[in-house]
Amino acid sequence: MLIDELTQSLLGHIILFITFAAMANKEDIFKKVIAHSKEYGYVFQSSELYDGLAAVYDYGSNGSELKKNIKEYWWASMVKMNENIVGIDSAIFMHPTIWKASGHVDAFNDPLIDNKDSKKRYRADVLVEDYIAKIEGKITKEVKKAAKRFGEAFDQAQFLETNPRVLGYKEKMSAISKRLNGSLEKEDLEDVKALIEELEIKCPISGTSNWTDVRQFNLMFGTKMGATAEGSSDLWLRPETAQGIFVNFLNVQKTARMKVPFGIAQIGKAFRNEIVARQFIFRMREFEQMEMQFFVRPGEEMKWYEYWKEARQKWHLSLGVDADKYRFHDHEKLAHYANAAADIEYQFPFGFKEVEGIHSRTDFDLKAHQEYSGRKVQYFDPEINESYTPFVVETSIGVDRMFLLTMCNAYREENIGDNDTRVVLALPPVLAPVKAAILPLTKKDGLPELARKVYDQLKLEFNCVIEEKDSIGRRYRRQDANGTPFCVTVDNETINDNCVTIRHRDSMEQERVSIDDVRDIIDRSVSIRHNLAKC
Ligand code: ATP
Predict the structure, then answer these.
(1) Going by CA atoms, what residue is nearest to atom 24 of ligand 1?
(2) Do 188 and 232 belong together in one domain?
(3) Containing domain of residue 321, as a range?
(4) pTM above 0.70, yes or no
(5) Is the CB of 401 under 6 A from ligand 1?
(6) What is the pLDDT of residues 171-209, one digit of tens each?
(7) Pocket flag, ligand 1, residue 395 (CB < 6 Å)
(8) Residue 243, exposed/middle/buried by CB under 10 A (0-12, 13-18, 19+)?
């Protein structure tokens, strides 16, 4: 018995150690992803030459291509695949009353709190959510411990529903979350502070609980339009692209001759004066959104809400990410305009976090614009002979968050035997910035010229590079780290047999193929057409 207890306690320590090691490893991986992004021309800190600008980033030669490919993949899945979805490109500057109507002037706030000792500022709700996430982490540890203890006989679902310690944690999480959401809804900021104090949440910098009161902070950036100070008017930089779609609803419906149900898609910049901008490009002050508003008959919104949840999940999975790295998070606290909302979350190295939101926005926005503009914003439905304000289901994903997801998911360090390792960026080929590197084996015997011919055949369809420098092994490694799915090597035999060697990034397998087949081999793997067939 004693030995059993001892073994268990020892096992517990080992598991704890492994969990900590895994956590440390995850943090390490995230740091490596950030460093890799810079080294390979994916992401740079904005204004780095002047010591940087917080939470603003620039995309380099590879980054801008990856970003463009993400946008194209999304646009194809929305606008090209669906005959009832069209795109627009609305301006960033909009009439200021639009933001009054949408509720952003009055309600687009985050509750902020400062620690008096470290002078650091936090989002009060995020402090509490992080606390809840820690409890969730404890449940994960319990599951891991039990799985080890019970081996094959372990039934995780039953364990989660019956284990007293897990049930206690769950109850605590739910009580905290309910209180936080209730207080935020009632704008009871005193209670949010009381909750932080009761939970004894400490500032990670100073380690103290010396907090200021919680205050609301509007996230919109203001600016001015006009030549003179007196004659200028106040404007906002848009905090979401959706309003550009709502105020163009009638224009687009009429000119594109759309019938409900139909959607309007848009990709564009949005700006939010985030209180705490952390985690690299996860939370930025200037970022890009890909949004689609789907207009439906009142009463049909829940059907379409479910439809778009599923469709968006398929889109994510079509990029080859493991399904268990995704989860849905249904909102308990709904935004002022929504009657249902869910986030698609991805398991980043720093935990499960939102990548995309799917919101049933009711008829709130169109009705608000009708009221504030004094113009009728309605749709006449010829099938039922009725005019109404359509309800809206929105899908909204951040380009930069999708970019970060793609990088985190792709980065790996592999042991490839013989004490050799490699860093590989296993990007989905359809998103990879460079599709193929054309490599003449040597710089002589006409091989560079032959390589250029292959390059010229491919360059208008695929983004390719030619590399002559360094040994072929080093060049392969560089392209692996760059995320290039194919290396095409031209050697002395090519002159005789018109064949090249294609090396596949992930398997490192090589095959000898005719130059005439190279285009099709690359296309099968990188084309949007082939990838979206999985949706
Ligand atoms: P969060 O809870 O992370 O602040 P949110 O719920 O406010 O996000 P939405 O308003 O639903 O986000 O915006 C839709 C999408 O836009 C998000 O899922 C995310 O991908 C992206 N996004 C929002 N804010 C930012 C930001 N500051 N930086 C980068 N992407 C963002």
Answers:
(1) 283
(2) no
(3) 40-90+220-415
(4) yes
(5) yes
(6) 999 999 999 999 988 889 999 999 999 999 999 999 999
(7) no
(8) buried
